[in-house]
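Section handout, structural biology tutorial.
Before the tutorial, make sure you can parse a SMILES string by hand: atoms, branches in parentheses, ring closures as digits. In the record below the ligand is S-adenosylmethionine, and the chain has 216 residues. In the tutorial you will relate the predicted structure tokens back to the input. Do not try to memorize them.
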Amino acid sequence: MDFVKTKDGSYTAFNQKYQEHYHALSGAIKEAKEKFYLPAGIKNGMKILDLGFGLGYNTAVTIHNHQDLRITALENDTSILKAISSLPKPKEYEKEFQLLKKLVKKKTLTDSAKNIIELIRGNAIDLIYTLPTSYYDRIYFAPFSQINQPEIWCVSVFSELCRILHKKGKMISYPCGKRIKKNLEQVGFKIIEPDQVNNRKFPLVAMKIKGSPLFG
Ligand SMILES: C[S@@+](CC[C@H](N)C(=O)[O-])C[C@H]1O[C@@H](n2cnc3c(N)ncnc32)[C@H](O)[C@@H]1O
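Predicted structure of the complex:
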């Protein structure tokens, strides 16, 4: 797989099927930190779903300097998982990426800080139905964009994400427009991040405020 260097020096890849890079070209590490990890407000001991694990940046940045996290990672593309072994590793996160390389060959790994990471291969649209109710503190919802992958940005998926989140748990995703936000609100989320007149630059943070009215 060919890697593309992003502006912060970290590397991403290009997906032919969805005609999209795995990260913004402004930086793969920058995206993982600024669009997912920091807005999520991660605390030790949290349970996190990383939907769209890809090259693993969101998980790598999240376990760095944390302990006792429990991360469930979902990914359906074997080729991107294999690519982790040849990805030029960002210096700051070298240890975490060495761990993820091992994770690809196993199903579950525990690191020295007692973070437990489970990698489940398969279609997240089906797998979310098998995940426990009111379990996760945070969800990183990181598939491809709404334009290129509309089938996953839908009410039935959002409803399941709401079901598996703890009350007041948060889902973090890419900046998105009014229609997606309305659909999230419909299933029991409250949009809580600054949203200055629908400015698309902010990451999306949606908090669960009630059980999914569609699926109980
Ligand atoms: C934009 S990339 C996310 C990149 C990732 N956050 C990272 O740090 O590399 C989207 C990822 O979601 C995965 N994906 C998309 N649809 C999926 C699905 N239905 N089930 C599982 N994984 C999916 C893709 O294969 C891809 O790896």
